[in-house]
Write a structure and sequence with these properties.
It contains two helices and eight strands, in the order βαββββαβββ. It is globular and about 45 Å long. The protein folds into two domains: 56 residues, 2-Layer Sandwich (Signal recognition particle alu RNA binding heterodimer, srp9/1); 60 residues, 2,3-Dihydroxybiphenyl 1,2-Dioxygenase, domain 1 (Roll). The mean pLDDT is 92. The protein is an alpha/beta fold and 122 residues long. A hairpin with a 7-residue loop joins β2 and β3. InterPro entries: Glyas_Bleomycin-R_OHBP_Dase, Glyoxalase_6, VOC_core.
């Protein structure tokens, strides 16, 4: 059996990315934190880890892989992420009724915030 243990994000500014992703996901670093690597884990204990690896790499668009973050209150989460340093990404092919907002972290790594609010009963 396989499970996702950690998602690794390469970065240039490890400390800045650590602060962003820890606050964005309410994760905490596993000690000891290395000068070029940090593993962030959920405070609640549930979910995959996010590891940050201080290995600069070329940014390619569109990215081959990205995170989908599910939010019960999408608007509030997008605003909170923007206050932490994330930016919205406009995409001309995004349908008007899309349930996602494309964003990027302070270093340009893209992710989507998905509206996962429970639907009201009809």
């Amino acid at each position: 059996m396989l499970t996702v243990g950690s998602i690794v994000i390469r970065c240039s500014d490890l400390e800045r990315q650590r602060r962003f992703w820890a606050a964005a996901l309410d994760y905490e670093p596993r000690e000891p934190v290395e000068p070029d690597f940090v593993l962030l884990r959920p405070r609640s204990g549930a979910g995959p880890n996010v590891s940050l690896d201080a290995v600069p790499s070329e940014r390619i668009l569109p990215p081959r892989i990205h995170l989908d973050l599910y939010a019960d209150d999408q608007r509030a989460e997008v605003e909170r992420l923007e206050s932490l340093g994330a930016r919205r990404v406009e995409w001309s092919k995004r349908p008007p009724d899309a349930d996602y907002v494309i964003m990027e972290d302070p270093e340009g790594n893209r992710f989507c915030v998905i509206d996962a609010a429970p639907e009201e009963a009809a």
